[in-house]
Design a protein that fits this description.
Layout: H1 12-18, E1 29-37, E2 40-47, H2 52-56, H3 66-79, E3 90-98, E4 109-118, E5 124-131, E6 140-148, H4 151-154
Antiparallel strand pairs: 1-2, 2-4, 3-6, 4-5, 5-6
């Protein structure tokens, strides 16, 4: 469907990548652990329920924004040295499914599992799953698929 006249669609991932380096944005998460093995990686992030972002999204009912979830997946990918990717290499956000709200007061940790699959065109396809801790019942928060340019296709 077409957007109404005067409206422009801006993908949330582009907003993350275009924020100025001196932006007052304070990350609402910290990377606690990362394990990578070939085409798979697993990371744990600790959420800061007191981060300013949550006061605005939403007052009294904090929710981790979807665009921040995409940013977290990009951070996992960039942190895996054997994949040789950068957060700015996002070519496409192919698919995103938000299945459960992430309230940082309830879920202080988010676990991300990422699988990497190269394609014939030199790009890499990453499928990520965000879940809670097993002690919380391993709630499936979201599934995110990113397509990223490889080192060689950047040139």
């Amino acid at each position: 469907p077409a957007l109404p006249h005067g409206f422009v669609f801006v993908h949330p991932a582009h907003l993350l990548l275009s924020r100025p380096m001196n932006s007052p944005f304070v990350s609402p998460y910290t990377l606690e652990s990362l394990q990578a093995d070939g085409p798979q990686a697993r990371a744990c992030f600790v959420l800061d329920a007191d981060a300013p972002l949550f006061a605005a999204h939403f007052p009294g009912n904090p929710i981790l924004p979807g665009v921040v979830q995409i940013d977290m997946v990009a951070k996992v990918i960039a942190a895996c040295p054997e994949w040789q990717m950068d957060e700015a290499d996002i070519d496409e956000v192919a698919n995103v499914k938000y299945l459960h709200i992430i309230d940082p007061r309830v879920h202080t940790k988010v676990y991300i599992s990422v699988n990497c699959k190269p394609s014939a065109d030199g790009r890499r396809h990453f499928r990520a799953t965000l879940t809670s801790d097993v002690t919380d019942g391993a709630i499936h928060f979201s599934s995110i698929s990113l397509v990223m340019r490889s080192q060689t296709s950047r040139r």
